[in-house]
Amino acid sequence: MSSPGLLYTKFRAILFCCLLISAPAFADESPARTAPRDLVLLNWSEYLDPELVEKFERQFNARVREVYFESDDLRDDMLLETEAAGYDLVMTNDVAVDVYRRRGWLEPVTEKQVPNLRYIDPRWLDAFPGVRGYAVPYFWGTTGIVYRKDLVDKPMTSWMDLYRPAESLRGKIAMVENSRDLIGMALKALGYSANSADDKEIEEAGQLLMAQKPYVADYAALTLDGDSALVTGEIAAAILYSGDALMVQEFHPDIEYVLPVEGGNIWTDYLVVMKNANDKELAWAFINFLNEPEHAAQLAEYVYYATPNRAAEKLLPEEFLTDAVIYPDEVLLEKSEAYADLPSQAMRKRNSLFSRVTQ
After folding, report:
1. 147 is in which domain, residue-wise?
2. Is the pLDDT of residue 342 over 80?
3. Are residues 294 and 152 in the same domain?
4. Assigned domain for 23 exists
5. Collapsing DSSP states into helix, strand and coil, what is residue 261?
6. CB 358 within 8 A of CB 177
7. Number of domains forming the structure of the chain
């Protein structure tokens, strides 16, 4: 029989060996050693704060990969090519949500998966068909005119200042590669609804766009950095979204944004989780993370757009909440329109017109 001291020594030796054998297995299961989970987001460029992305990646041991599009039309084409496969999350515009839902592309999103939905203003969940239960509001804003005050003859206040420009603006205008905005705002300039389905009104908008064409340098999105054509002066005026205008305004003091007297487009962007997502749980977690009030407030100040997150608004500075570009005058908002789903015949006519103008 062994002595108690000898038994204790043997027990310690056996325990030590067991710990050595089992230690690698525990280390392999630690977050630091586990491969990060991938999240693929189809998004506008410069529409997400890199600091928040890094914080999310650390917190969830994830890797966020953004794939960019330059227009709503291009995003739709990209999704059609793959039947919406290959993406976990998609940034989409208001009227597209119900189209995607009807195609069976979307995974439901409710407070069960995204508890921070409780902070979202219900106005934006009920603003468009198909949104509630399938999409989470990201930001809202307006579409208007951005211009260089030092490069135009007089302040631009009307859509006609852009669509029937002064001779000095020949070759100095940039227009978006987006049929709804390009044609919709031409219709507004003519005094019609941006959602007009009338053949004669659309044809009149086409004539206006063709007459404008010699003045247009490019039908493409402006970059929003110090090398932007608006900053260098190659472009003197353009159609642009409100927050983008404020972003590029940081690089030149003479850049001005105006919501024209006729009103513009009031839009809402939404995040949607795709039915074919590889990691739906991570997609829901990302949306929930972005809607933590302090994160949503930080994101709003980064992109200069109005947040639909009511708790986040309480954390924003007064100068942000009173900025007329971010929160426009109610009279101009009343004149502005959200885009509506159009009859297929009207869409075909618009698409044909858009191709004619931009080619």
Report:
1. 141-265+336-358
2. yes
3. no
4. no
5. coil
6. yes
7. 2
